[in-house]
Write a structure and sequence with these properties.
Length: 431
Amino acid sequence: MKRENSDKLYSKAKTLFPGGVNSPVRAFKSVKGDPIFIDRGNGSRIWDVDGNEYIDFCCSWGPLILGHNNENVRKQIVSTLEKGTSFGAPTELENELGDLIISNNRFIEKIRFVNSGTEAVMSAIRLARGYTGKNKILKFEGCYHGHMDALLVSAGSGLVTLGNSSSAGIPEAYVNETLVAPLNNREAVEAAIKEHGHDLACIIIEPIPANNGLLIQDVDYLKFLRKITKENDVLLIFDEVISGFRVGFEGAAGLYNIEPDILTYGKIIGGGLPVGAYASSKEIMAQIAPDGPVYQAGTLSGNPVAMSAGIATLKECLKPNFYSDLDKKTKRFVEQIVEGIDVEKGFHIQQIGSIYWLAFSSDRVTKASEIEADKMRFFKKLYEIVLENGIYMGPSGYEVGFVSEAHSEDDLTQAAQVLNNAITQALDNEE
Ligand SMILES: *Cc1c(COP(=O)(O)O)cnc(C)c1O
């Protein structure tokens, strides 16, 4: 494949942006080669600036559940755009998206729109602290919640520890308010609550952790979290920035029928434009300004163009069988990928709804510590092969893949063959 134009653009980009990119994973540091610059997308396909075509399983890291350039989404965006782009005053579109979400979600009564997942989480944490009057928060090793200071922490060496910052530039004082526990482990949470419950504002979890592999949790464990938080006046936050509107319209909360106290959304909610949101009961949301004392604001929040993309996208998601069709399609895709590959070789696929992850392990993986870093060499090898054969995925073995409504059976069969060959080659070359 020709990459001349991408290479030229990347050289220029490196003079403009740190690492040549505006978000680190795009720099292809975990795989061979340099980033591919994209020119356009349509349906399941994207085309790079050298004219190469790919079936896309990155889907902008999740927002594009309808695929690229969906006609209804585009039309809605354009018709809104023609009336201006931003007013900093309320528009009817905010009501429309808010109503669409709240009236189809049993777990929330009020919502506030922001501009990204990070912003949603940051605001939800402030809300939890404001509502409870407590300071500490607990997160899990292997969950990602965006780049706010207090959540860029990883575990120390004990079962439950105060976090170590996983980024430079974070004051120790912030990190000291964050506890970190391993996923899918009850004792750790019990110990944390025993020791810190009196000052613990919230536990935040990705109910379907999908930013560090796909670490599907036991449903009983999530129910345990709900119970123990309730008993100890600790709020439970489900960060559904990926799982929201992805595994069902009501996200993981709906799928598992567990009601958290606060939910955060992003990605699909904006249909490819920058939108995030946090939502809760009327009582908890009454803490937010201007009703209450917890301040949170945004110049472009509820932006009409972004709202339009969200409305058009979520309306499609509400159509009958939308999620069951996606689920079936993805299951078949996964079966085709693994066909003939012996799980004993240390490979299987974890999948839920239209999210899947290539796991280089024979066993189910539920914790970050169970992912073996050196196995990522297999991903590196297969990535090179699949890219060359017209399949685009997130350029890291820790990233999940997404199937969209736009992926046809033919797309998926074709892609599964390429993946099956590439995985077989990657595993076999080892021996
Ligand atoms: C993507 C993601 C975020 C961050 O959202 P941004 O829009 O990138 O700021 C937060 N939490 C989860 C679970 C995510 O998947």
